[in-house]
Amino acid sequence: MSSNHLEGLVGSDAKWDSIVSQGLLVKLSTREFTVLISIFTVAFAFLVARLFRVFSLLTFGMVIRERPNEHQMDQLRVAVVNFRTPFHVVGESITWRVIFRGRERERKFALAWLTGAIGFLLLGLSLPVLLSKFPVSNGFAGGSSCSFGLAVVDKETPRPRSIFDAYLRYEQQNALSHTDADGCNYAAFSAESVGCLRPNDTIKKLPSCPTHAAKTACADGDALNFFGEYWLTPSDLGVGNIPKMKFGVATQCYKVIDKTQELAPPPNVTWPFRVFGLLYGPIEGLADVVYPNLTERIIREEAHGRGYNVHTYSVLQEDSSIPGDQSPWTPREDLHHDGDISLLIYHLGATYALEFGEDPLFQTVPLNKSSSAGSNWVDDNPEHIVSWRGYDLFKPATQTVSVLCNTTYKLYDAKFIGKESGHYVELGGYKKLRAFVENLKNDTNRVADPPRLGFLELLADIAHFSGIEVSSAAPNGVLANNLLLSDVIQQFDFKIQRFLDEISGQKELTRLFLSTRTRFILAARRAVLNEWMVPFLQLGFHFDEVVLSSENENLTAMCRATLIPDSDFKTTTARPWVIAACVWFVTVLLTYSAPVIRKFGWGLADEIERKWMLRKAGSLYNQLTRDQSVASEVGPKQFEPGNGGLNTSSLLGGREIHSHLDQGKTESAEGTSLIGAQERQVEMRDFRSG
């Protein structure tokens, strides 16, 4: 799904599902999250350094037993004690020199130590990568303040109902604007080509009538047959941790055979215009005994300047468990379908075109240039217009074009729907969807899952007023109006369609269909942020004039599981961070457990520690200082080569001769290493103290 615009407003992913499932949600600003990452990175670096010291100590213990003439091994022992990080091991030359030039035992020890150091380097690099595996989402979660918006108001209360209708028009106008901004290809003939749908969604456009359409209602070849189906998951709306659930919406539209009849005025009444009736089924307050199927009256003289205009009627599929709120329009017998029905009557007579058009919705014919009045719509030209700026004009082939759409809903839910039906149910229209949700709410044997049930309640609320007729009735409901040019012809304001090849009935229906999807996708965000309140207040209304939808436990739970994308915030779960901190603390604590180990009286540990301490830089420096003091008292000549003096060598290399002064007398020098001499001194002190 390449809905780039909508993806910036809503949507979640597997990380958000993990965050919601673990709970303990934490909202951080981008700066706070950066500080958190820095703290953990430094902590992990310190942990690696401590673990490397433990590794060095264990490695040192493996070669604690000394052998004669292993001068490079003693250098490695000193390096193991004093190189505190793996970088020293890899970067300093001593390890590499021993590997290439040392004896076999020395090479093995150096290679083992180098391999361990490289392993700890890789560990140090991998721990920050581990942080990236912690679930973090861009944005923040919804809180407890959550509302559907305005509640449906009965038509018996005119003022609140008019407010609700205005609010609903604004909502749908907003949905159409978001759909246009999403960059969908309305002219495409498949879901994949449309670009805003998933691969398993469907778009079909055919000239033949659908199989369920009556022959008296639809004509093959001019059917404007449109079928669309899309599926939505909770994650599409930004709701996390509701697995194995899909909600499907299917809409089938086709062009209805035009049925008009010229109406006779009532007795003793004279009409100044010719009045015609559209006969698609009776509507309350208009149909009578003479015209039982009268739906709407039209006059031949269209209102100039209004462009393409749509009048809409709808009826919800009956369901005995959800009474009331029935449309005053009753479809004609051959227009009945098993779903929510929308009738769109496109008024086209107030527009002209510059070319011949064959589109089922925007078909045009040459304008009658004769001065005689026409007997039908095609020949009628009451304004006697001939041309526009030298161009011949064309008019719509019919004054109105009617389109019938049928919408049904489907649901796949592995938790609330049994295996016997494959966890799938075809619900039909809105009322059956509402009845299904109400049955779940009243089912005491059902396993409690407030976010899942709240999500279904949200879908049912949007489905009530998300039909095709609501979209088309919005101020921006007809896309072709965007290409109209306004001009004055013979003192009349007219609309000229200069781009007839860029408009089509299929594009209009595709756009309306996708706008219903947009309303569903934005539903959770709208509830979390109370975005419905903005247009409500902008329209100048007050809360005491309307009835607000009541909040409930299910809706609140769903909102808390909803992600609102926002680049300024990060949301994560505290669980992995707390676990990582606890593991870090325990591990670091264990690296300082040498005093505890000595409590058990483990002799080898004491020996390792004693020899380890002797090879620390501080101990070596103190010993070197003492040796230099002895040398200055004996005299420099005794240290000259060939004079029977002492041979000196580097601190970490070869053999060094240590002289011991006792009551001012010089004893013969004993050839030994600097470290070995110090060890014997420590052993002698231990013996005397014992």
Written account of the structure:
- The protein has 690 residues and is α+β, with helices and mostly antiparallel strands.
- 39% of the residues lie in helices and 18% in strands.
- The chain contains 21 helices and 26 strands.
- Strands 4, 5, 6, 10, 11, 17 and 18 form a seven-stranded antiparallel sheet that branches. It has a three-stranded antiparallel sheet with strand order 1-22-2. A three-stranded antiparallel sheet has the order 7-8-9, with no helix packed on it.
- A hairpin with a 2-residue loop joins strand 24 (661-662) and strand 25 (665-666).
- Helix 8 (158-181) packs across helix 13.
- The longest helix has 33 residues, at 30-62.
- The radius of gyration is 43 Å and the shape is elongated.
- It starts with a helix and ends with a helix.
- The model is unreliable at 638-690 (pLDDT under 50).
Main attributes of the structure:
single chain, 690 residues, alpha+beta, 7-stranded antiparallel sheet, 3-stranded antiparallel sheet, 26 strands, elongated, disordered C terminus
